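Hi V.,

You were right to ask for the full record rather than a summary. Here it is.
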Amino acid sequence: MREWLVQVTEIAVTVIDWMALLIIIAGTVEAFIGCMRGVVGRLDNQQRREVWVRFARWLVAALTFQLAADIIETSIRSDWQAIGQIGAIAVIRTFLNYFLERDLGDLREQQRVAQERNVTGSGRGF
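Predicted structure:
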């Protein structure tokens, strides 16, 4: 029974890791295209910021998937060295996720303030 659980868990971890990889690839391609538009000069600062925000969202999603795979993987590891390595990786991913989420929150707040200024500022001339 344990062998079956280990095999299913390893397959699940591999599938989830592949999902995370595909998310990272898709986000990176989208960000690369956005950056190339910026290099050509067709993006203003707000649009460049949006490229970053979208890319950060992709990365947060991928990190979340990878963290899920790490959690599942700990259920089948029995030696402390493997658990310690998985734990260290999980901590690093959690910190990356935290800081990306914090940056996204800061950018959302900046966008909200900028939008409020635009709405408030546009009504003054009448």
